[in-house]
Structures are given as structure tokens and as C-alpha cells.
Amino acid sequence: xxxxxxxxxxxxxxxxxxxxxxxxxxxxxxxxxxxxxxxxxxxxxxxxxxxxxxxxxxxxxxxxxxxxxxxxxxxxxxxxxxxxxxxxxxxxxxxxxxxxxxxxxxxxxxxxxxxxxxxxxxxxxxxxxxxxxxxxxxxxxxxxxxxxxxxxxxxxxxxxxxxxxxxxxxxxxxxxxxxxxxxxxxxxxxxxxxxxxxxxxxxxxxxxxxxxxxxxxxxxxxxxxxxxxxxxxxxxxxxxxxxxxxxxxxxxxxxxxxxxxxxxxxxxxxxxxxxxxxxxxxxxxxxxxxxxxxxxxxxxxxxxxxxxxxxxxxxxxxxxxxxxxxxxxxxxxxxxxxxxxxxxxxxxxxxxxxxxxxxxxxxxxxxxxxxxxxxxxxxxxxxxxxxxxxxxxxxxxxxxxx
Length: 402
Description:
By secondary structure, the protein is α/β, with parallel strands linked by helices. The chain is 27% helix and 32% strand. Among the domains are: 165-261, D-Amino Acid Oxidase, subunit A, domain 2 (D-Amino Acid Oxidase, Chain A, domain 2); 318-388. The protein has nine helices and 16 strands. It comes from Streptomyces atroolivaceus.
């Protein structure tokens, strides 16, 4: 990878070295597209190592970065009832950002059409040849990058106008127990045996890495994140009173908040400037999952550019977003009980079909059948209400009586 050359005109400039930026740079370089990936220098703009999970059939493009996977998945109801299944051919996979970044960097280094630059991007704007990115290098020097197209994955500052806005907020511990406590063959997607908040829902999440090691998270869907102390207290309660882990050590921790909203994220910000990843609406509103969607969208963008198309395909279909908007609204108003809703859904729908639905891969007939297995009355009432609610550019959901 060479030093920056200000006169170079790339086919594409990708801003941001998170999952979306890395995925897109990888797929573009694989088609021979000249691409520059701009990553933030070491410092406060570079996020801490984080975990991405997704489900996929067969060996995927980034299998080398998968640190663990599970054939069997489990959901536990508030009363401890267990729903467990093997959603073959799908496997649940965990990717850590560090190994994923190193894998993609090694592939980009092998491509003569790709380069990675460390710089802070400040502005993306249209130019006669496409778009330009104004940056500052790690050494403090100004730098302008030129691309026929620019794909920006940096987080947006404000959520676009919406009717519902919840947060999926969490804190997780990577724990090591004194004696074996985990079954490495089964991942717990949702464990509702935790105290429920007054608004929204809460659950535990357990990804075993070995008989004595696991990622254990406490997660809430609600309007406001907790303090770190509150997350720690919830994790102590979950690991001690629910999981009964006994003595253990916390080797590392991670914390975050993911918007779950029916906001419409614009994919285009200029004539040749586009948003990708969570900034472009790749996060599935009803689940908070993003990684699989950015893979699909990255492949589609690479195919479109190879065909000289200026279209950036949406990460999710309209039908899926419409159904998610209804679910988010029903959860936010309290018309449906969150723990019971998800527990019943996993009990009544084959897990493989439900995961395909959550990934946007189900048929309309399958979606109709899944809809019949939800609380039909509250969901229909919510669907009838949504068209009459205004979208607001605020941090709160549009209010209405239950």
C-alpha cells in the first residue's frame, strides 16, 4: 500500500474502516475496481474492538475471521421454558472486529487496485468528476481524495425523522469460570429470566466459546441507555442468580447502543456520494443486526459498479421495513409484551424460517404465516395507526395512547 497521491482518481473512495467500509472495499477490490479505503488514525475516532454476529449457510466469504459458531440456538422464556433448535443449514457466527480487519487488510494488500489510508475525513462533497473527500492525515497534513463515487460509512449525528425510536443497548463480559459452566454447542439468543424494565424489554445473551469461557451480555430494548454501573449490576444479577456461574473472572468488556427505528436513512447525499452501513439504514430495525446486511449490500454495490450502474441498492426491502415498523411501534406502546412476544414467536415458528425472515429472505406466504403467529389484534391496530403518525426529528418516539 502506497503513500497518498493527491492526484489519483479512484473508481471509489470508501470512508470508514468498520464492518461496512471493510466489506465494501473487499468486494470492490475483488472486481478490479480502483478503491481507496480511508480509516481513522489511532486515537479516539477508532472504536474499541467489538463483536459482530450473524447467521449464514455454508462457508461464507469471511469464514477465516469467524472466531466461533453454533449449530444450535436457544431462547428461554421468563418462566424458564426452553425453545432450542438447530436451524440447519444456518449457523450462528461470531466475528471480532480485530481479526476481521486484519483479514480484509491482507486481501486489500494483495490487490493492485486497492489501498488503505489512515486519515480523518471531514467533508464529502460533489466534484465535476464525481466526489471528493477532504481529510487530515495522521501527521496533520490536509489531503483531498478524488473518486468517481464516494461511499461514506461514518455514523450519522442525528437520527432522521421517525415515528418510533428505541435503542438496543447492552454491556457484555467475556468471562472465564473456575469450572466448566457452558455448553459450547448452544448459543442463547434471548434469555428473558432477568428483571424486566418498566418500558421495553430485557434479556440475557450467552455465546459460549469453551466450557469455561463465554460472552455474556445484558441487553435492553428501550428508549434510554443505562449507566455503566447499572449494566454491571444487571450482569452481576444475571451471572450470579440466573446462570449461577460461581467464581469467574471478567477478561474484557464491551458496551454499545444500536438505534432501532423506522426512520428513513437517505442512501444518497450528493450526485456521487452515498451512505452505507448503519448510516445508510443497514441495521435491521426489529433486531439490531447489521453485519449480514452490509455483506449483501456490498456485494450488490460491487456488481452494480461493475455494470456501470449508479444505483446503490437498499440494504432491506420495503416489506421487511414495513413489518419492522409495526413491531417497533407495538413494543414501544406496550401493546405487546416483549418477552412473551419473542418467546411465542420462536416457539410457534420453525427457527430456520424465522431467521430467514429476520434476514429478509422469507417469501410473502411465509411472512403471512409468521404474522398469524403474533398477537394479531394489537399488531393490526398498530398497523392501522402508523400511516397517521407524523415523523419527528426528535429523540423520542411519537406518542399515542395504548
